[in-house]
Specification:
The chain is α+β, with helices and mostly antiparallel strands. Helices cover about 30% and strands about 35% of the residues. Helix 1 crosses helix 3 and helix 2 packs across helix 3. It is elongated, with a radius of gyration of 21 Å.
Length: about 240
């Protein structure tokens, strides 16, 4: 019996997603079950799944299985006041963050220059991951002067937002001074953290936030899932 082409399997699964027969978070049958369902070879099934994973439709989680992903792409506007929740929550998604690590280290040359610190000054490094409706969209590190913000990470965990933490230090407002963006191939560990296919690129964002008088507050290095977020540049307070 002639086996069906991998593109036919891809199209059938994608059609089930479009129709709603397969919903975000649903787990697909195992590979042997898909082989039996479509009367296809393992190679064809794997190629179809891989194509849908690259397109952001499916997620292959090692040791867990194949899952349908939530595919709507979110818009993140970078403006004078760039705020995570005010960007994403109005788009109807539930935004959450998780702490990955927190540490105090000697500032590297790059961080020292961005924050205008002296030689051998310490910085607090807060690493966090951001999720939208439970799906990772970004992770990264925020660097701050340890002399000014020694317990920033702890306050961030308690208060839930950077803006709220700054207010506890007497900083009522802050602005985005600098942002650079470029895309590149995802590293294996980055793809794992973002739960995306290794061939899907990431967007790398470097940014500096300052007080209204230009005094640096934080330097940010972020890795964003290119298939889930698009960036726009705006002049309004974002």
């Amino acid at each position: 019996m002639t086996q069906i082409n991998w593109t036919t399997i891809r199209d059938k699964i994608e059609n089930d997603i479009v129709k709603g027969d397969l919903k975000p978070g649903d787990q697909l049958p195992t590979e042997p079950q898909l082989v039996q369902k479509y009367s296809a070879g393992r190679h064809s099934v794997r190629k179809a799944v891989e194509a849908l994973a690259k397109a952001g439709k499916l997620s292959v989680r090692q040791g867990l299985g194949i899952f349908v992903e939530a595919t709507p792409r979110l818009t993140y506007e970078i403006g004078k006041r760039t705020r995570l929740r005010s960007n994403l929550i109005p788009q109807g998604c539930e935004v959450s963050e998780q702490s990955l690590s927190a540490d105090m280290i000697t500032a590297t040359e790059v961080v020292r220059q961005k924050l205008k610190l002296g030689p051998d000054e310490k910085v607090v490094v807060s690493q966090r991951i951001t999720l939208a409706d439970g799906l990772p969209i970004a992770f990264g590190s925020t660097f701050l002067s340890a002399a000014r913000f020694p317990d920033f990470a702890k306050r961030r965990d308690v208060l839930g937002s950077t803006t709220s933490v700054y207010k506890t230090y007497g900083i009522e407002d802050y602005v985005r001074d600098y942002t650079s963006i470029h895309a590149r191939q995802a590293k294996a560990e980055e793809a794992k953290i973002l739960r995306q296919h290794p061939d899907v690129p990431v967007i790398v964002v470097h940014a500096v936030d300052t007080e209204l008088d230009g005094t640096p507050l934080s330097y940010i290095e972020g890795i964003w899932a290119a298939g889930r977020v698009q960036f726009t540049m705006g002049g309004k307070d974002a």
